[in-house]
């Protein structure tokens, strides 16, 4: 009986710690506002958030620094590229249709790190052979 009480106390203590950390992490994420990109056939529009480390060239988006970014829209010749050695990127693809005939529509380069989150219908395609 004593062993069972010790085990139960250990489990409850661990659970309280984990739930406490989850609240802290969620609170932190809610305090920051993502930058949002909308692809179209003619370009990319931006709604600035707390993160501005990016470059746009026509319908090509390059993420150059950490941050939270949301990408939506539709484009038949666009791309998203997370630059080499960039980490700490959270990239939410939300109702996105993106194609490219010459390169991958989405690439996370060497030594880069990005969490990719999918919301809604997302289609990425290329015709590279």
The stretches of 5 or more residues where confidence is low (pLDDT under 50) are: 4-31
Strand order of the largest sheet: 2-1-5-7-9
Major sheet? 5 strands, mixed
What is the helical fraction, as a range of percent? Answer: 10-25%
Secondary-structure element pattern, one letter each:
HEEEEEEEEE
Please give a structural write-up:
This protein is α/β, with parallel strands linked by helices. The protein has one helix spanning 2-30, and strands at 35-39, 44-47, 54-57, 60-63, 67-75, 79-82, 89-100, 106-108, 114-126. It has a 5-stranded mixed sheet, with no helix packed on it. A 4-stranded mixed sheet has the order 3-4-6-8, with no helix packed on it. The longest helix has 29 residues, at 2-30. It is globular and about 35 Å long.
Give keywords.
129 residues; alpha/beta; 9 strands; globular
Ordered list of secondary-structure elements with their pairings:
Blueprint: H1 2-30, E1 35-39, E2 44-47, E3 54-57, E4 60-63, E5 67-75, E6 79-82, E7 89-100, E8 106-108, E9 114-126
Parallel strand pairs: 1-5, 4-6, 5-7, 6-8, 7-9
Antiparallel strand pairs: 1-2, 3-4
């Amino acid at each position: 009986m004593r062993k069972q009480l010790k085990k139960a106390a250990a489990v409850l203590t661990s659970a309280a710690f984990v739930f406490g950390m989850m609240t802290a992490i969620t609170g932190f994420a809610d305090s920051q506002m993502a930058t949002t990109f909308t692809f179209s056939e003619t370009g990319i529009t931006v709604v600035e958030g707390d993160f501005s480390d990016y470059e746009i060239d026509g319908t090509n988006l390059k993420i150059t620094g950490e941050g939270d970014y949301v990408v939506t829209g539709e484009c038949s010749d666009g791309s998203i590229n997370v630059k080499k050695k960039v980490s700490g990127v959270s990239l939410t693809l939300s109702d996105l249709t993106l194609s490219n005939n010459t390169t991958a529509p989405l690439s996370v380069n060497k030594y880069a790190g990005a969490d990719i989150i999918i919301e809604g219908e997302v289609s990425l395609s290329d015709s590279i052979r």
